[in-house]
């Protein structure tokens, strides 16, 4: 199957193509166009031409369009979910959040975003004037998405941009472009030409986008290293930025918790999408009184997991999405083994073509080991023992990342007090990684800049104009 880009409402082919491969077996799923610089320029020009009419369309028109896009997702759920599984690997009904759930979640986010609006605020009222705060769209927004939740994250970027009156050029990860290409093609039945464009390509295209003078804002989800590059390259025309970057979320489980009560929730929070989730639970700190029991409960769950091709019935976990990521996970686990950690389960790559790796739990490990200090972004979880709450809080915070964090305890007030001292953008109690389209989500420290979702997320696609209305 050969895919086309969509520029100015029309399918566009390219001279060069690249293959998209199924991580479960290495088979080529489709070929995609590699955009030239001229084609990127065409996409930006189309978005710029579409901007005046789109930004001046009524709020109700844009709301209806975003709802129409939610219908597009709902009406094409089967095809989109299958594309996600074929390109990303996650099972259709996988653990916690399969490919069907990704399309359903994308639809849900669309509908919630359609209901958001940015009312005019009054900043000051004097005898002379009323100072109003108006929110104006920025212009052309470029979205650059990663390979872990390809469609969901595209929707997180596109919908607030369109809802607030911007036009969009999206570039999906070259590893997982298919569901996004299909969605943008389908979206043309709802949107005016040029409002939503898609370009695809391998290395280099992202850099061309971030330094393009015709783009006003970049919204990016991916690695911290790439986020830093984007920030540097975006400086020439002071592009606005929302950067949702890596995380190494800590969870602190206090000694009053019964491991059996929380083990499944903790396991899902860590292994959702095979651990390839920015806000997954990645460092599990467990009080010494319940450490052994927690290790046993989690191991028992891990051993029940079915790992295989996501298109097969009954699979809970699929392959790691790409070999580079799998190699990183194996490197971190092997390093932990060498440092004397105990592998409770998993820890060996099975024979075969796919990038499979079993859910791996690593005990008797502490900070200062790579698997604890670095983000594995894959199916390996370190379980770290602690005895003192103040000390574990300091260890949890002693990391350059600051995306999410959680505290688990039957004493909810004490857990809230502790969670508020975690250096992270989202804090959960007896839970981890639950997100809502109404609640701002973003990282502190090196986990990002800005937030997504809700009114605060929508505001990031606008600039403020203060209007001084004189009193007659
Ligand atoms: P990257 O950050 O490298 O890639 C994400 C997106 O950015 C892709 O679309 C990629 O395009 C694009 N890109 C790459 N380089 C540039 C650049 N210089 N300028 C602009 N865009 C660029 O992530 P990877 O996919 O390589 O994953 C690496 C690590 O990132 C993982 O190990 C994980 O830690 C983290 N990650 C975090 C995610 C999150 O949700 N926070 C999601 C995915 C990864 P292309 O690949 O097509 O060249």
Automatic annotation (TrEMBL):
<protein>
    <submittedName>
        <fullName>Acyl-CoA reductase-like NAD-dependent aldehyde dehydrogenase</fullName>
    </submittedName>
</protein>
<keyword id="KW-0560">Oxidoreductase</keyword>
<dbReference type="GO" id="GO:0016620">
    <property type="term" value="F:oxidoreductase activity, acting on the aldehyde or oxo group of donors, NAD or NADP as acceptor"/>
</dbReference>
<dbReference type="InterPro" id="IPR016162">
    <property type="entry name" value="Ald_DH_N"/>
</dbReference>
<feature type="domain" description="Aldehyde dehydrogenase">
    <location>
        <begin position="16"/>
        <end position="467"/>
    </location>
</feature>
<dbReference type="InterPro" id="IPR029510">
    <property type="entry name" value="Ald_DH_CS_GLU"/>
</dbReference>
<dbReference type="Pfam" id="PF00171">
    <property type="entry name" value="Aldedh"/>
</dbReference>
<dbReference type="InterPro" id="IPR016160">
    <property type="entry name" value="Ald_DH_CS_CYS"/>
</dbReference>
<dbReference type="InterPro" id="IPR016161">
    <property type="entry name" value="Ald_DH/histidinol_DH"/>
</dbReference>
<dbReference type="InterPro" id="IPR016163">
    <property type="entry name" value="Ald_DH_C"/>
</dbReference>
<dbReference type="InterPro" id="IPR015590">
    <property type="entry name" value="Aldehyde_DH_dom"/>
</dbReference>
<comment type="similarity">
    <text>Belongs to the aldehyde dehydrogenase family.</text>
</comment>
<dbReference type="InterPro" id="IPR044086">
    <property type="entry name" value="LUC3-like"/>
</dbReference>
<feature type="active site">
    <location>
        <position position="244"/>
    </location>
</feature>
């Amino acid at each position: 199957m050969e895919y086309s880009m969509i520029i100015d409402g029309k399918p566009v082919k390219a001279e060069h193509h690249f293959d998209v491969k199924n991580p479960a077996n290495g088979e080529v799923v489709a070929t995609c166009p590699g955009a030239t610089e001229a084609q990127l320029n065409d996409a930006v020009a189309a978005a710029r031409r579409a901007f005046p009419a789109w930004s001046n369309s009524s709020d109700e028109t844009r709301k209806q369009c975003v709802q129409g896009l939610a219908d597009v997702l709902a009406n094409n759920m089967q095809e989109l979910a299958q594309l996600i599984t074929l390109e990303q690997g996650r099972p259709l009904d996988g653990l916690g959040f399969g490919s069907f759930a990704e399309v359903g979640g994308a639809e849900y986010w669309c509908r919630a975003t359609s209901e958001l609006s940015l009312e005019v605020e009054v900043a000051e009222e004097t005898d002379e004037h009323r100072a109003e705060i108006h929110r104006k769209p920025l212009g052309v927004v470029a979205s650059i998405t990663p390979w872990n939740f390809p469609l969901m994250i595209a929707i997180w970027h596109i919908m607030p941009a369109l809802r607030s009156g911007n036009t969009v050029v999206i570039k999906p990860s070259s590893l997982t472009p298919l569901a996004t290409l299909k969605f943008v093609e389908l979206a043309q039945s709802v949107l005016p030409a040029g409002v939503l464009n898609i370009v695809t390509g391998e290395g280099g295209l992202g850099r061309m986008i971030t330094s393009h003078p015709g783009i006003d804002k970049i919204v990016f989800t991916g690695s911290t290293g790439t986020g830093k590059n984007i920030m540097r390259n975006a400086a020439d025309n002071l592009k606005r930025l929302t950067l949702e970057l890596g995380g190494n979320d800590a969870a602190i489980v206090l000694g009053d918790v019964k491991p059996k009560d929380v083990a499944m929730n903790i396991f899902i929070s860590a292994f959702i999408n095979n651990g390839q989730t920015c806000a997954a639970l990645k460092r599990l700190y467990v009080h010494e009184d319940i450490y052994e029991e927690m290790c046993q409960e989690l191991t028992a769950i891990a051993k029940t997991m079915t790992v295989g091709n996501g298109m097969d019935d009954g699979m809970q976990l699929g392959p790691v999405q790409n070999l580079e990521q799998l190699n990183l996970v194996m490197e971190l686990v092997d390093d932990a083994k060498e440092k004397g950690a105990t592998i409770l389960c998993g820890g060996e790559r099975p024979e075969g073509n796919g990038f499979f790796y079993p859910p791996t739990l690593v005990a008797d490990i502490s900070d200062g080991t790579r698997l604890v200090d670095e983000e594995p972004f894959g199916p390996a979880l370190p379980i770290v023992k602690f005895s003192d709450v103040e000390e574990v809080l300091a260890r949890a915070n002693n990391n350059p990342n600051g995306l999410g964090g959680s505290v688990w305890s039957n004493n909810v007030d004490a857990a809230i007090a502790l969670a508020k001292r975690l250096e992270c953008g989202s804090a959960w109690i007896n839970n981890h990684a639950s997100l809502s389209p109404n609640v701002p989500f973003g990282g502190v420290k090196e986990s990002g800049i800005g937030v997504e979702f809700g009114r605060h997320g929508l505001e990031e696609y606008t600039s403020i104009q203060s209007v001084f209305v004189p009193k007659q």
